[in-house]
Amino acid sequence: MNRTGTNKNEFIQVVVFTVVLVVFGIFFFAMPHKAISFIEKRKLSVMPVFSWDNLSKGKYTDSLDLFFADNFPFRENFVEFAFQLKEARGLGAEDFAFYRTPTSIKPPKCGKTKRDTLDDSSRVKDGEGDIVNNWIFICQGRALQMFGGTNGMALAYAATINKYQALLKDKVTIYNIVVPTATEFYLPKEYLRSTVQEKPNIDLINNNLSSGVRAVDAYSELLAHKNEYLYLKTDHHWTVLGAYYAYKAFCRSAGFTPLALNSMVKKSKPNYIGSMYDFTHDKRLLDSPDTVDYYIIPGNYKTFDYYTANQKLAVRSQLLVEYGWGYGVFLGGDFPLIKVETGVKNGKSVLLVKNSYGNPFAPFLAAHYENVYIVDYRYFNLGLINFIIDNNVNDLIFLNCSMLANADWHIRCINNIMYYRNVPIHVPKDSLKLKHDKDSIITKHVDSLK
Amino acid sequence: MLFSSLAFLYLFLPLNIVLYYLFKNKVYRNIVLVLFSFIFYAWGQPLWVTLLLMTAVADYFLGRLIEKHSGTSSGKAILFLSVAFNIGLLVFLKYSGFLYENINALFSVSLEPPSYGLPLGISFYTFRSVSYLVDVHRKDIKAETSFLDFLMFLSLYHLVAGPIVRYSEIPDQIKQRSFNIHHISSGINRFCIGLFKKVCIANIAGDFVAQYMGGDPRLLTTELSWFGLIMFTIQIYFDFSGYSDMAIGLGRIFGFNYAENFNYPYISRSATEFWRRWHISLSSFLRDYLFTPLVLKFRNWGKSSAIIATLITFTICGLWHGPSWNYILWGFYFGALISLELLFLKKFFARIPRVFSHVYLLFSAIMGWSLFYFTDLSHLWNYLGVMFGNSENAAFHFEFFTVLKANIFWLIIAIVFCMPVYPFVEKYLMTHSKFAFLQPSSLFKTVVVIGFNICLLLLATSMLVGKSYNAFLYMKF
User: Fold this and answer.
1) A137 lies in the same domain as A13
2) In angstroms, what separates the C-alpha of A40 from chain B's closest C-alpha?
3) N or C, which end of chain A has less CB nearby within 10 Å?
């Protein structure tokens, strides 16, 4: 072929390349842009508003870059392909893998307060504040978050619980439940060096509680049943069965007779792929989906969700929101305050301070108390001490997993809710099953009650 | 804006190509390039383009003035002032914070360092300006008479991060660029290879570097610290050479022919050779405008003149890379190595098998990168402590083999592409008759090249889009 032929071929190369670039550019403008990525649980960037100030500081163009990246044509396909490419970079071990988690595993900054109540006795030293561990280990179809707790954090957590005891004294009985994560039981022995053992850490917390605080030994109960389905494999939470054994341990400590498992109707939601898959996109997790079981607690209950915790704006809800997706079935997600009025007419009230780990645990309490208050310490914005006194709470339960009991931000949150904080209304942010929009949550709840 | 950003790839570049080739008139084409270059520079720092414009205006007139007074003492004085003006601006903007820090530390005062950012590409366009002014003074080139052409030369966005293209290398291309489809096609090919090197190798290596060199030192073990530093060795080469490839490719797309900037530096057998292969445009710039004049100045000192000139040149070379002591040490380190080679090492390695000199260079380069990475020298010391077992950190963690296994194909590709495999294969295919179907004129080759480029582009795109994936445990609605 002559030079003309070469030129023609090269011309084709140039045209094809340019057309590909141009077509994607046109698609970007022509295709509709999404507002939210539900997989990533975040808002996608929107077209920035132009201002000379933002332009001069470079913020406008930075935002444009983010907007373009978040709304790139066929973004989800490209993201999926990127994960496949990552897997193709080497020989993926058949039995295990591990991932360094992105920094976004840290909690959102919603706990900033005007008044930080963490005093020097419970304040952790600089550098100990963050969750040290940032690995997710995949093993036998299960995701395990390595534990990185420290003695300093454990002592800070215990000091926080003690502070409640000191303030409330004999007005309430305080129970502290710190449960281990799945890593404690399922991490293969050869990798134990890569994590901090949770048992000594939990013991340290319990051994440093004031004499008035009852330490619930959930660890032993879970250990005794570790061959059962106690933790979700694809998610960072536990199962209702794990929560049930912690509840049994609590009953033993509080002098209650626990509900028997066979006295409750068991229901299941199969094919749940949880948060650990969102992080890792590890195929092993996709191939071993979870089943979210839940038990219908016998009796009649009225459940109310409060968005502002002022007990004025109440929305009727349910202990178990059966249309909820996966783990969201328990309490319907996270709310600042949930109040349950039960048919148990014993005049006793309990208040559970928890994060999402407490959601499968909370419903069991309805079998033993007339009033159950469930407070999510991340979103509650009233003063908890006064709330407890005003509502004649008898028992106060702190429930946390070991990992978050060792997290500075969470300890601060539990400290900060002691007293009233005049902060804007919180909209639940950690609901893993409901839509983000406040109105749609209310509408959905109301609709479900019709 | 970065060459490896989605906005550049799919908005800026196609628009630039289309608008550029819409015009046949050379003046309009130069105007398009200047406009796009200014948008590029202004993308993150709109105010700093005024500095670029000001430098261009000043150096345009200074160049003409130097030419007018060439050969006279006033011409020399103007040259001195104009170089001082350019270097002074660079020092003021890039190094004043560093100077403040050192003055504060030295005299126990607390002067507030200036808080303005560094103008994009200033290190590179300053050197382009200086080379232009000196070359005019030396009568190697004629001063540019068209301000538009000079502005285009100084502001070309292709050269924002190298290579340092001198005016003397491309005067004809500034004046007259003919349409050459072969150039454009090879430019696209080169650009895609550079993009792949940057996004698919350097960025991945960079993630490991961030984890191990920039991560929690408590999680570090001996073999992970070595792995981290080797990843940085890979990252910096592919990042920089990838950027240079993209610049050379962009140049060809728009009719320029820039010289090579990297020539497989890690296959070198000495630090001297390494610097002939690494950032060639910088080392040749320093050779011509600093090292040679210094050698001439110290010529009476015999062999010492070369050693002194080498040490000074490389120390300044280190400083050019950043306003921090670690860069100065890094430059001095290479200056010292080259001096030792000059004195005896070169002769020593000539007598022993080649493999030793390769190992020597690789080890030296890798250790050098540790100096380059850590701006805090105490961190460097701690890191080296872990590397050489002088720390309480564990020696081994299963993470190393897991990472190695999970990235082994990628690592092989990265290491192989540090060596001149691509030109070797290309030459082999082009010279053997059984691969005639791959000759430039064949339709098959056209399809292969199109497929190859589009594959590289889409691989890079998916990784860039994948970077925007940011999952949260907690809702961020």
Assistant:
1) no
2) 4
3) C
Same domain? For A29 and A134 the reply is no
Q: Are B246 and B195 in contact (CB under 8 A)?
A: yes
Give chain A's domain count: 2
| Euclidean distance between CA atoms B212 and B221, whole angstroms | 9
Q: What is the pLDDT of residues B165-202, one digit of tens each?
A: 998 888 888 888 877 888 899 999 999 999 999 999 99
CA distance A290 to A273: 6
Query: Would an 8 Å CB–CB cutoff place A128 in contact with chain B?
Result: no
Gap from B197 CA to chain A (nearest CA, Å): 15
For the record, the structure tokens of B82 come out as: 């104009």
Report DSSP state, residue A210.
Answer: -
Rg (CA), chain B: 24
* B30 within domain boundaries: yes
Amino acid found at A312? K
Give the C-alpha separation, B288 to B292, whole Å. 6
Task: Give the residue from B189, B188, B208 showing the smallest Cα distance to B410.
Answer: B208
Q: Do A132 and B476 touch (CB under 8 A)?
A: no
pTM comes to: 0.76
Contact between residue A204 and residue A151 where contact means Cβ atoms under 8 Å apart? yes
Minimum-distance CB partner of A42 among B398, B466, B470:
B470
Q: Are B52 and B122 within one domain? A: yes
Sign of CA dihedral A436, A438, A442, A447: negative
Interval B188-237: pLDDT, tens: 999 999 999 999 999 999 989 988 898 777 778 888 999 999 999 999 99
| Whole-complex ipTM | 0.85
